[in-house]
Design goal:
This protein is α/β, with parallel strands linked by helices. It has 2 domains: about 160 residues, FAD/NAD(P)-binding domain, CATH 3.50.50.60; about 140 residues, 2-Layer Sandwich (D-Amino Acid Oxidase, Chain A, domain 2), CATH 3.30.9.10. It contains 11 helices and 16 strands. The strands form 3 sheets. An 8-stranded mixed sheet has the order 5-6-4-11-12-13-10-14. Strands 8-2-1-9-16-15 form a 6-stranded mixed sheet. It binds glycine. The site of glycine has 7 residues, from loops.
Amino acid sequence: MSRDPGASTPCRVAVVGGGIIGLAIAAELLCRGADVTVHDPAPAGTDGAWHVAAGMLAPGGESAFEYPHLTRLLEAGHELWPRFVAGLGDVGYDRAGTLSLALTADDVAEAAREWKHQRLTPLTGSQVRDLEPAISPRVRAGAFAAAEHQVDPRRIVAALRDRLRGRIVPRRIADLSELDAGGTPAATSTVAGRAGGGFDVIVVAAGHHTGALTGLPIRPVKGQVLRLRGDPGLLEHVIDGAADGRHVYLVPRADGEVVVGATQEERADRAPTAGGVHDLLRAALDLVPGLAEHELTEVAVGHRPGTPDNAPILGFLDDDRRIVVAAGHFRNGILLTPITARLVADLVLTGSADPILDAFAPGRFR
Ligand code: GLY
């Protein structure tokens, strides 16, 4: 059954994927009056990229020089955060800002190019230590990005799951046709009843699994991430730095946890490696030696959903306009969560796409 673009607001929507993107889309649709269910094999699981994500809200630090459309989307997405978190309770939204650091002369040369692109003023090593006394005396230079914030993705997912209670169906979808009976849905208010089929629109937001469901080129990109725990006063700002060519970010939470990330590997396995952990810890301790006293509490592996241009895929899968794809966010899944939820909900409910989505349509890979 193909969808008539002029049809009235679709009321029954199935979201495939209960990660942060799928949940945020479902919550937005629910808030706007749709009858939405989320379909995920492990509704309380921790397999998604959100579980390892540090939660840096860094439109500048993660923006690609080469892809201005993505920079625009990241910046527009960043603006939505204050409103997005307002209804979620305490999700660790922290606006202390981010310090970008460079240890060696080579690190400074590389970072200087990015600081210029981000229009940040370079700071000397001692200016950096005035802002963050725990920084190593060996750090040569830095820059302060006041607008780059952080949030705790695990707390956001908990809040969204709570909001969608009773609407998350424990079910693995192997083929989208399982959801698309196209018939008249049973008049029932139970989750099982709503899960059956007859949906007006299906939103596929299943991270790197979206590739298998849609045929789109989305691949898993492995990231190893550590969690340390110690004195909550050691760091105030997010640190994003390079130490002898090793890139690392340190995201300090108010309770003393510090997230240390992340490797970026073109692999699909879930094994933490000695080399990955070593490189992260070495770079972290080179920049902030006091972290050596912290307890290593977690070593985790997740998979970013990457696309050929590493920009997200957002839009109708085909001319049938009944399947919407919201995946492939690569390194920017957390930052882009609120804007993805808003734009995808607009698309589902009105049938028309905001022009900012033109550069991210699934059709660009055909
Ligand atoms: N956004 C940070 C990462 O993907 O590692």
